Amino acid sequence: MKKVEKEISFYEFSDFKYHLQIDKRLSKNTIQAYMTDLELYGEFLKKYQLDVKFITDVQKEHIEKYIASLKRADFSKQSIARKIIAIKEFHKFLCAEKISEEDPAKFIELPKASKPLPVVLNKEEIAKMLDSIETKTPLGLRNKAMIETLYASGLRISELVGLKTSDVHLREKYIVVVGKGNKERMVPLGEMAILALRNYIEKGRPLLAKKPGNILFYNYQGNPISRQSLYKYIVKLATENGITKEISPHTIRHSFATHLLEGGTDLRIVQELLGHEDISTTQIYTHIDRLRLKEMYEHTHPLALKNKKEGE
């Protein structure tokens, strides 16, 4: 296909803007953001890529150099991603309109969004929550057993509510868990969790179970407790104990893994206990551990304290 004779300059974006308004029906603010991003892109190409005279001269490497300049300028991943989306849409439009023969942005990838580190409760917060659970009622005994088991094993909430009495082996001090992909794993239990489970199974569960069955944790109606109910209870328990951190269904699981690594447990063992298929999933806890070590150093080491005082 022969190259189109009438090239368009970097500032002739009016047709593309019309396309965004009429065909894409984007909001006024989104269109304005696209056009601002494209103007910045055009300025870069005009100023630094002297071999690019027209928009149809742009190659993949020119776009990559532009993205590299954004990274050097400390633009956030989110901002860079938005700029890339504008560029990709623009070059796709040029191809659709037969202005460009090839799309140089077709194989440009968006930056992967960095995952925020999970919220972790410290050991004191966990202890405070556990100590505050009343165990005078069947539901109290159940609650104590659930939270002790979560913290002792690092189970997902869905795994905990799915436990059956046959999965619990108190004498041998472990439970059998069916995780993602129906994969079974054996998870050891600590003494406190064993004690709480024994008390619940002997004194609480018989009063909650309305009919014969092998479900471990029942609600007050005699039905299996739901994930939502357990999560709501964890949030309530944290709030009642003055914990203002943003709690998620995995908070106690995150805390379990982090505290194990702080205590020197090997990462592979933590991976096995959590039921992670890939160790890269488990490695996020090493980042948390390093951050906590840094905080502990800054709050306790004499030199760190000395430097902090001198800087005040």
Outline the fold blueprint:
Blueprint: H1 14-22, H2 28-48, H3 60-72, H4 77-96, H5 123-131, H6 138-153, H7 157-161, E1 168-169, E2 174-178, E3 184-188, H8 191-208, H9 227-240, H10 251-262, H11 267-274, H12 279-282, H13 284-300, H14 302-311
Helix pairs in contact: 2-4, 6-8, 6-10, 10-13, 13-14
What does the model show?
With 312 residues, the protein is mainly alpha-helical. The chain is built from 14 helices and 3 strands. The protein has helices at 14-22, 28-48, 60-72, 77-96, 123-131, 138-153, 157-161, 191-208, 227-240, 251-262, 267-274, 279-282, 284-300, 302-311, and strands at residues 168-169, 174-178, 184-188. It has a 3-stranded antiparallel sheet with strand order 1-2-3, with no helix packed on it. A hairpin with a 4-residue loop joins strand 1 and strand 2 (174-178). Helix 6 packs across helix 10.
